[in-house]
Write a sequence for this structure.
């Protein structure tokens, strides 16, 4: 059983999100009007730049995730990626805050794309690190819950500082408010880097898989597809571990003659149920296919469909379904677990003593059935 993460680790992880939280929504609020105010880039193009930046973010995020998964080595790759992302952020943020209103379109666009890519790299690496640190659901809740809490606190500070600067200095212009905001980010960035330095490293462990190449996909099939293919969906789905377990299970089934023994158990319980049905004169039907025994007490699946009387047919099906559920509950009260109150599955473990005990329990239910 894994031990819970220390509080220091959870706190350090939450502090590490600081720069990413500040450079998300608040920066998108303050920067566009500041760039447009300079007049170098027309307002329409300013909107286009930030729209392209948003689209770029949607493209680059999965690519960054793939890069982290496939190009990470060592025991602490997430820390390395976050430090790599911090460098362009630390360089570009002052540049944009000081001269963002004096940069032309064709220079501003690549600078913003690089800036937002660095922000995404920092954020995705931080998320991936949290997933690697969490060894159980409790750890995951604590890590990402504290991350969310830290984001909310930092967002409040990010929006409050420029407003506070304007309150203290009423004559401060838009650039001054942006500089106040950028200054806070520059202060938070090294604090976050110091915090992640205290976090334990975790290697990036690739999940098992075969990829999505056409020659691989041609050999896969869902459970209902035929042909000589690997079943990857439904009851027939398997992975290497379950294939190995299934193989040895088949060997044991053959060695112990399990199918024949289970079939005899199915015959015995079916015969006993029919004797009970006759004894108590119940309108039930019991039959089996080998080890699988069907006990039909409600006939839910045997209603004749009449389209011209579909309303009454549906009402009857619903009534029978309710009756089937009630029989299932009655069996369960006696310690017998059935499938939908109508099917029993026997195995080689069901000896004559087990079957006879089950029949006694069924009798406790049958003798209390009220006949109209």
């Amino acid at each position: 059983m894994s031990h819970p993460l220390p509080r220091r680790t959870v706190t350090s992880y939450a502090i590490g999100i600081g720069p990413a939280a500040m450079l998300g929504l608040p920066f998108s609020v303050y920067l566009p009007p500041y760039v447009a105010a300079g007049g170098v880039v027309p307002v329409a193009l300013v909107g286009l730049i930030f729209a392209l930046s948003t689209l770029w973010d949607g493209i680059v995020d999965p690519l960054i995730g793939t890069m982290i998964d496939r190009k990470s080595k060592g025991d602490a790759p997430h820390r390395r990626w976050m430090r790599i992302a911090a460098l362009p952020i630390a360089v570009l943020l002052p540049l944009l805050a000081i001269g963002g209103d004096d940069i032309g379109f064709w220079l501003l666009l690549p600078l913003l794309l690089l800036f937002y890519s660095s922000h995404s790299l920092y954020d995705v690496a931080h998320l991936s690190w949290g997933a690697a640190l969490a060894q159980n659901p409790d750890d995951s809740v604590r890590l990402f819950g504290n991350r969310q809490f830290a984001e909310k606190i930092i967002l409040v500070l990010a929006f409050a500082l420029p407003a506070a600067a304007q309150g203290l200095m009423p004559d401060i212009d838009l650039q001054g408010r942006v500089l106040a905001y950028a200054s806070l980010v520059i202060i938070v960035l090294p604090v976050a880097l110091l915090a992640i330095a205290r976090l334990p490293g975790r290697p990036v462990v690739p999940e098992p898989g075969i990829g999505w190449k056409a020659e691989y996909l041609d050999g896969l099939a869902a459970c209902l597809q035929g042909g000589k293919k690997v079943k990857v969906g439904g009851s027939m789905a398997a992975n290497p571990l379950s294939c190995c377990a299934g193989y040895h299970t088949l060997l044991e089934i053959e060695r112990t003659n399990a199918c024949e023994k289970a079939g005899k158990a199915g015959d015995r319980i079916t015969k006993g149920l029919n004797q009970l049905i006759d004894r108590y004169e119940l309108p039930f039907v019991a039959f089996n296919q080998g080890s699988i025994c069907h006990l039909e007490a409600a006939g839910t699946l045997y209603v004749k469909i009449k389209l011209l009387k579909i309303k009454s047919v549906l009402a009857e099906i619903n009534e029978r379904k309710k009756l089937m559920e009630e029989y299932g509950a009655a069996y369960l009260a006696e310690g017998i677990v059935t499938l939908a109150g109508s099917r029993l599955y026997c195995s080689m473990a069901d000896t004559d003593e087990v079957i006879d005990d089950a029949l006694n329990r069924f009798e406790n239910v049958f003798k209390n059935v009220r006949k109209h």
In short: The first strand starts at residue 220 and ends at 221. The chain is about 65% helix and 5% strand. Strands lie at 220-221, 230-231, 285-289, 292-296, 343-345.
